[in-house]
Every structure is written in C-alpha cells, then in structure tokens.
Amino acid sequence: MEAENMVHMANQIANFFASYPKEEAVAGVADHLQKFWEPRMRKQITEYVAHGGGGLHELAIEAVKRLH
Amino acid sequence: MALIQEADYGTPRRISETLVTLEIDGKPVTVPAGTSVMRAAAEVGVNVPKLCASDNMEPFGSCRLCLVEVEGRRGTPASCTTPVDQGMKVRTQSPKLAKLRLGVMELYASDHPREMLHGSGNGQTEFQEMAAAVGLREVRYGYAGKNHLHSEKDESNPYFTFDPAMCIVCSRCVRACEEVQGTFALTIDGRGFASVVSAGDKPFIESECVSCGACVQACPTNSLVEKRYVAKEAPDRSVVTTCAYCGVGCSFKAELTNDEVVRMMPYKAGKANHGHSCVKGRFAWGYATHKDRITKPMIRAKFTDPWREVSWEEAIAHAASEFKRIQAKYGRDSIGGITSSRCTNEETYLVQKMIRAAFGNNNTDTCARVCHSPTGYGLKTTLGTSAGTQDFDSVEAADVIMIIGANPTDAHPVFASQMKRRLREGAHLIILDPRRIDLVKSPHVEADYHLPLLPGTNVAIINALAHVVVSEGLVNEEFVKERCDLVAFEQWRKFIAEERNSPEAMEHAIGVPAADLRGAARLYATGGNGAIYYGLGVTEHSQGSTMVMGMANLAMATGNMGRKGVGISPLRGQNNVQGSCDMGSFPHEFPGYRHVSDTAVREQFEKAWHVTLQSEPGLRIPNMIDAAVDGTFKGIYIQGEDIVQSDPNTQHISSGLAAMECVVVQDLFLNETASYAHVFLPGASFLEKDGTFTNAERRISRVRKAIEPMAGLADWEATVALSNALGYPMHYNHPSEIMDEIARLTPTFAGVSFDKIDELGSIQWPCNDKAPEGTPVMHIGGFVRGKGLFMITEFVPTDERTTGKFPLILTTGRILSQYNVGAQTRRTDNNVWHDMDVLEIHPSDAENRGIKEGDLVSLASRAGDITLPARISERMQPGVVYTTFHHAMTGANVVTTEFSDWATNCPEYKVTAVQVQLARHMSEWQEHYLETRKQTTRIEKESTAND
After folding, report:
1. All structural domains of chain B with their residue ranges
2. Does B463 reach chain A within 8 Å, measured CB to CB?
3. How far, in Å, CA of B283 to CA of B278, rounded?
4. Contact criterion met (CB < 8 Å) for B796 and A15
5. Shortest CB distance from B588 goes to which of A5, A15, A36?
6. Cβ of B859: how many Cβ atoms within 10 Å?
7. Which end of chain B is more exposed for a tag (fewer CB within 10 A), N or C?
8. What is the CATH number of domain B160-289?
9. Positions in chain B short of pLDDT 50
10. How far is A21 from chain B (nearest CA, A)?
11. Does residue B490 belong to the interface with chain A, where contact is any CB pair within 8 Å?
C-alpha cells in the first residue's frame, strides 16, 4: 500500500479515538489495528514508525508501538 | 409443486380484542370486530362472488355482486362493506340473490367484448370465474348496444397492456395504485358510462406509474395484463422463491409452463412483501435467459487473449492448479476471494470456508465492504449485533419516521410502499438527505422536516440532534439507567452537551438552519415511537461507522429501542448482503460475527472442518487491490461480484487485477471484472438453484430451484468442485446440508433448517433455543451486548475538500428501474426508463457553466474523468451533483476516490470533489474502455464480442 494512503487510514482511526482519554485512545487504536489490519499492513506501518512515522497522528504512533 | 392459487378473503384482516360470533349460511364463525361479512364468510369457506373487492385493499362496494341477505334487515347489503355484528345471521345464497347477481354480471358483460365472458388465450380471468359462479353463459341483450369495444389499447409500457374495452371500471387498479403501492398514478376520468381508468390523461409510460404491477395483479378482467404472460400457455406449476434484487427480499411465485418461467407473481404469504412487488422483481427477470448468458466455462493464459471454451473439469483443474502454483511461488497469503451478496447463504458460506480452509488464509471479503460494512461495525459496537433491530412490519407502529441517507421509493420500493401507508395514516416524517428525494413531498405524504445537509456532515447533524435531546431534557433517563452502560453514557452526555455540538454552532457546517434541527430533534424525541431507517448515505462516508454509532446513541438516549415501532433499520442494498455478512465473508470474522482471533471459536471451526485455521485478519477488498499493485497478492476467486464497475477508483482496481496472475470470475455474464480474468466459471441465476437469502430485517427465506442450471452446475457445486481440486474435500448432497452445518457452527442460526423455513415460511435470526421461531424485533428487555454502549462521535470533516479546481461535490446512488451495476436490469426492458447514466445538476450550477438539459458534460475529479449527459434538476442543492453507476460505459467510479470509512474502508462514494464542464467527446478513459472491452470479451470459438 502507498505510504500516504496507509498514513491517512491510520490517522482516521486515531482521529476517532482521540476524543477518549489518552490511554483509552491509544489502546483503542492499537486494538483496531490488531483486529482489522492484515499482518503485512501492520508490518508496513510498524516499519514506517521505526523510520520516524512522518505524518502519523501521535496516537497512531504510540499504538503501533504496542502491536505484536 | 402445483400451480398455487392463494385465497382472497375479499377485505383486509382486522385486528381487535373484541371478537364477534355470527352465522354464515348456518355455519358459526368468530372474527375480530370490524371484519366484513365477506371476510367472515371466506373464513368458513364460503366465497361470496365479488369483482371490486380484494383483501389487499379497503372495501369499495361498487360491483354489487357480493350482495347478501341478513336476517332481520331489509334489502341486500354488499357483504364487503357490511361489518359483522354479534349474532348476525347471513345468507349468501338464495334465489333472489342468484337473480340479482346474474343480472349484474349480464350487464357487465353486455358492453364488453364477447371473449371477456368466454375466454381466450391464457387461463381464466376472475371475471370469467364470477360469470361461471353466477351461471352466466349468454348475454340476452346482445353486443350491438352502446359499448367501449373500440377504445384504443395503451401498449406504451414494456411489460403490460391496458385495454379499456375490457375494463369494467371496478377501480381495483386505481385503489391498488393508491393503497398498495401509494403512487396515486391512476384515476377514473369521466362519469357514468364514459368512466375510464386513466393514468393522468397520458400513456402509462409517460405517467407517474412506477410499473410495480399492483394494478395488473388487481385487474379482474385482463384489461390490464402482462404482455409476456398472455403470449404463453397457462402455467401449470408454481415455485415459491425469493427475489434476487434488493434487500427487501420479496417472496414470489415463479409460475412455469413446460419448465419455462412465464410470470413472477408476488406471494401474499411472503412476510417481507405481503403480496406486493416492484418493477424489478415483478417484471425484470428476463436477464435470466438473456442471450448474453455464458453457459460454458472458459480459460485463457492472458486476459488480453480470446476466451477458450472448455469443460467444467478443465476449468476447475486449471484454476486450482494456478492457485496452487501462485501460493507455492508467492506464499500462502498471496491469494484470496470475494463472496457474493447476490448468491445464497449456503454458497457464500462455502466460498469463505474454501478460502479459510483450502487457501489456508483469511483473505475473504464481500461487497458489503462497499456498502454496509459500517452498519456491522457501528451496531455491533453499540448494541452487540451487526444487524438492524426491527422487522419491516414494525413501521406500522412508528409515530415518527426518520429517514437518513436513503431513498426507499427508488432503492427499496416495496418497503417504501409499506412506509407510505403508515405515513398516510398520520405518522410524522423527518428526512435527512442532501437531495429532495420523492418522499419529501409526494401524493398524500409530506415530510415534517427535510434537512438538506451538505454531503459529509452526517456526524455533525446527528450530534446536533442529540445535543438538543440532552440540553433540552429529552433524554429517556429511565431507559438509559436500566438498559445502558452508565459510565459511557455520562462520558457521551458531557461530550454531546458541549456548545460546539449545538445546532447553532453547527448550522453553517451542516447547511441547515438551527431552528429546523431543533424542531426535528424535538419531534423525534417526543413524538411517540421514533424509528430510524437509513441507507448508503450514512455508510459510504469517511465517518460512516461513526454515524451509525451516532444514530444508535440518539435512539438509546430517547429510549427508541427494544420494541415494535422504534429502532434502527439499515435498508440493505443487495438481496443477500445481510446473509453474506452473517456467513463469515469478512476477513476478520467467522460465521456469526466472531473474530478469527477467538481461540475457542476457531477451534470449533477447526474441529468441524478438519483443518488448521489462521488467527490473523485477512485482507479487505481494497487491501487486496493495494497488495496486488504492490506485487504481493497474485490470485483471486470472485463469485458474483463486479468490482471493476462497482468499487471506487476504477483505474486503481483495474491495475490491481491486471497485476494478478490468476483471476477467476464466476458470474452470469462477462462482467467488467471478467475483462481481467483468466478463468470464467458460468454462474446460475436465482431461478436455477436451492438455498436461502437473508434480507434487511434478518429474514431467512428459501430460494427454490425453478429450472435447471443453464450451465449444468449451481454456484455452490462449482465451489465444491474447486475446493476438491485444491485438495480440500467438500461433499454435500444438497444445500440444506450446508445450512445444517451453518446451524451447528453458528449460535444465531442454531435453530435454522430448510425444514423449519418451509414450515414457518421464513425465519428471522437469531433462531435458537431461546427463540425457536426467530426474532422479529431485537434487544427487547436488554441489548445483545448486555448494556447499550454510547460512543463518542466527534465530527471530523472529510479530507475530500472542494477546491478551486474541483468546486462541486459529487454524490452517487441508484434509481428505481436499474439495479447496482446493471448486469441484470440492463438486460431487460427496464432500459426504457434509464438507458444511460446522467449527471443531475442544480440550475444555478448549470447556468454558471453554460450547461443546458441533455448537454454532454465532463465530470472530473482528482481520480479521473468521464463524460455523460446533464440533467438540470432542482432535486439537487447548489454545489452538489449526482449520478448513478448502472452503466459500465459511463464509468462513474472512474471519478470516485480511494478515501474510505475509518473503521471499515467502506468507500466514500457520497463525497467526491469534482468539476463539471461542457464536453464535446468521450473521455480518454471511455475511449480506452471501448477499445479494451472489445478485445477482452472475445470468445475464440465464436470470434464475437460479448457484453
């Protein structure tokens, strides 16, 4: 997937959960990625964050760091 | 099954707690108060002769054939308009009555063609039956008197003829149009002998008639008669089945002559449609035997090669071999499949089973991805189950109907008729839609509020409505306290009460005055039973799932949940889109909406299917295409789905498919996706197989085979063959065995079987030990998830913004006569009404661009551009344009973009920034399409293009 599209999708998820207290929001984003993103997509975003995660919402970055 | 003749009780059923006992011809009968004598008689098997009465419309009392005698009363009252009384003694047969009836029939017959009495052509009419019943054989007056014999026939409608010479002016057609369909297109012009049925003094085809067929069905004389039907011999058997068009799921009797379907008659016992139909289900089924049907499997090495017809065995072996080769080379996850919402539950179940068990991954998805996937996410999160809460009949108890982003008269016409009936009875109506849809104002229906919001502001408006409920003390505190998660509720209450969510703060963004927002919110919250019905105008947005949760919040806050007349009801698009979701088509869920990571559930399936299953979610359709473009996804099996025409950003979809090494398409026709296929497996229409469909109200209905599969195999048999060839054995003798397996593995289907559906007619899931006959209304007494969960629904404007370059917003949708990608309806006479997609544009936007009605215009977005004719329409608001995607040549989805719902990737079809300009010729994409389509549909043996 194009990085721009991936960042857009992840930020949309983060924007939804941003209304919740931070810990709840990060957990919400991480849970969503874990449940709905196929492993190669999670791998791509994990690598993207490892390289700085440019353009990603801070909640998305923190959530990605919790993925397994 | 023999030809089914359903009983007609003459007048509608009445509901009353008071029961009345009377005698009909000496037979005692007890019926609810308000029942007509005619109906009471029919209840004990006494059929009073009638011509103007039918039990799907109110009594009229005009034909004077149903006269009876009542002991102690003078005269001979019409039994259809005479209500029963306690102790009444009715006589339906006497010499006096016989003479009166004979005289009436004789007068009717005297000024009409002789064949009307004696019959000609196909079967016996109701008029002829009545003539026989009263003993009329000849007319004493002859036929030379004043008559209507030379009236001109109206043959303008492609499906039926109106012959005034055969009309007895019983008004059944007029009343059917009013009471059953709710269109009011017909009337009686003139008086006395000059009275004539009229479609508004113009031919039917030019009138307001929507061709639902109710008038044809009601006509007792064949004055209104189906053209195709009269051209055939009388049918000799009926097969009760379920329509394969929209999510209403109407029951029909397929009537056959010598194993050829000659008519589709709406089935009165059908619980979704109660004997009504629309132009698609009633008339537009000719596609099933259209010359374009592909009936032989085909293969080719490259999609640019001509097709080569082969045997089923060779096609299946080739497909399996290719899939195995690709997996060996690129890995287990390099292939996947798409299940069809047009196929049966059993077929859908098998496809996802084959993908999970034989492919060994979870790369399965379905077309709900592009329509109602946010419904599943939003309702499961808030209520606990991925489906609508009500049955259709619930609308009969609704006091305030709120329609959001749906156009029922076009997309779900049979339910729209039921809804309009309730509106005519006095229910209030609120419509949230950027367009002025027909229900905003139509005969005897007018919305209390039409809130023409700007596309993309759904969440803003639902928050503003909820803000009014919270800030004006309209919350049903008792309901919330008893039924909902209070921590989440208080969190939500605090959020929604913030001033920034108020109508006054949001009116500019929404484009609707705050006063109207407040008025609508108050009406919904205080007007009695409030029922929300919604469509793709809710889901196909970047915040589609948020909006679904927002509606659930509003319904819970006002206590509009858990009983008849309330709830949230998605009007689902395709016939089996609910079923395809139920059957585990999504890449993260097994059948019954259970996540693949749930070890206990997974082990249950592993044990039953004798295979190890994956615990990670698979790829969604857009993910598959992205992965194909990236080079990691190389093969796909697509059953009954046309993603090239239906999915957004056509050029991206095409690129993804073109990058794959094996695309297998199973369909009735060489659809647009088949242009990129390497294997084509001929599909079977709904008339050619057994199974079940599940409609928008969770109703599981039988699909019954009326004719043999034209290609030799039903779709489920082809999937079984492919799975076997892949090395994962499947064996079923009949689709009922597949449903038995589904029931064993899916708690909400535990009590479902073909036998039980046959016994009950249809079943709404959940159907299990707790609800052995199904569940018409959900969440009674408690939500499926336990406590209802309020979710915070922050309004986040879409990133798809208008700019100087693209200053207008495009929203796409459907119309009555065509169905989705049009593969079926384009191959019927429905093209009379819509033979091309057009762009609806507001007069001011058109004028600013020098565009006149019918001009060819360019429609361009950042994704691509097409050309199509313009239609100037005040249904649109300035700044918003609209088109449909029914015709492949138009390529509407060339223009739509990759933006999608945050939770589900449902495309944002309803918001695309575009520019519209006058054009002189087709777009580059359209020219390229014509060229490549011709090349990719060649069949070697015949050397002719197919479409």
Report:
1. 19-134, 160-289, 298-371+576-689+707-731+744-751, 373-570, 808-936
2. no
3. 8
4. yes
5. A36
6. 29
7. N
8. 3.30.70.20
9. 942-947
10. 10
11. no
